[in-house]
Amino acid sequence: MESLTRLSQRYALGFVHALDTADVSDEILVENLIKDLSSRGRMKLLQSIVRELKKIYMQERKKEPCVEIAREEDREKVCAGVHELGISSYSVTVNPTLVRGWRVHAQGRLIDNTTKQALIELYRVIIR
Questions:
Q1: pLDDT band for position 65 (cuts 50, 70, 90)
Q2: How far is Cα 12 from Cα 125, in angstroms, rounded to an integer?
Q3: What is the edge-to-edge ordering of all strands in the sheet holding 101-106?
């Protein structure tokens, strides 16, 4: 018998594939998954399948470009700058811990133009 983790991963990947390809609603797919698990006596796998689905979601989310801004007032200016970097599709979130400025996570890179980062660098120079 496969390990429970491996079995949960296979169920999760199959569920994601079904979501992408099936012509039925998400609710019906969930109901069918639960029926299948129940009929095979595998309902205990449901929590670990959900955990695997969350991992898959987070991995996919990391691939999407993300822009963090310190203040809502900076949104338009930062979005114009992001377009100049060649990034057309991205999500924007407000992160007040950045103090001022913005940072972009895209294509496996981090572009950090924040006051927070500048303060951290200044601190590192001072304590050397």
A1: confident
A2: 47
A3: 91-94, 66-69, 101-106, 109-114
**Residue range(s) defining the domain that contains residue 108:** 66-127
In residues, how long is the chain?
A: 128
Closest by Cα among 81, 89, 88, 91 to 111: 81
Other Cβ atoms closer than 10 A to 70 = 20
Tell me the pLDDT band of 2, cut-offs 50, 70 and 90: low
The Cβ of residue 114 has, within 10 Å, a number of other Cβ atoms equal to 19
pTM above 0.90, yes or no: no
For the record, the structure tokens of 77 come out as: 């200016």
Residue 41 and residue 83 in one domain: no
Cβ atoms 98, 68 nearer than 8 A: yes
The residue out of 63, 84, 114 marking a domain boundary is: 63
Calpha distance 33→46 (Å, rounded): 9
